[in-house]
Amino acid sequence: VQLVESGGGLVQPGGSLRLSCVGTGFTFSRYYMSWYRQGVGEERELVAGISSAGGNTNYGNSVKGRFTISRDNAENTVYLQMNNLEPEDTDMYYCNAKIIDTTGLIPKRYEYWGQGTQVTVSS
Question: What pLDDT does 91 receive?
């Protein structure tokens, strides 16, 4: 299983970035996909999540109205469009895939993380 993020970088305040995460080694279209972020010495924070078919999304309060999560199951890719970036958005951004498999007698949770991509917002 691999989740590979890309698209991070240095951007000025007010600018935009688009993060991508490609998932391989699992049935991407069945998994709930999320983006999290974490700064040094801080707890990991949910940025946005999207259901397996893409019909439902969820956002952290600090990014609502500025960030948009989407997915392309044919390409095994989840995106995070980040607009109007602020210095407070500077963090390492991580892709997450999770599912609760209920096909067996006992539900089993599967969860995977990418290595992260750095986003720095600075003038």
Answer: 97
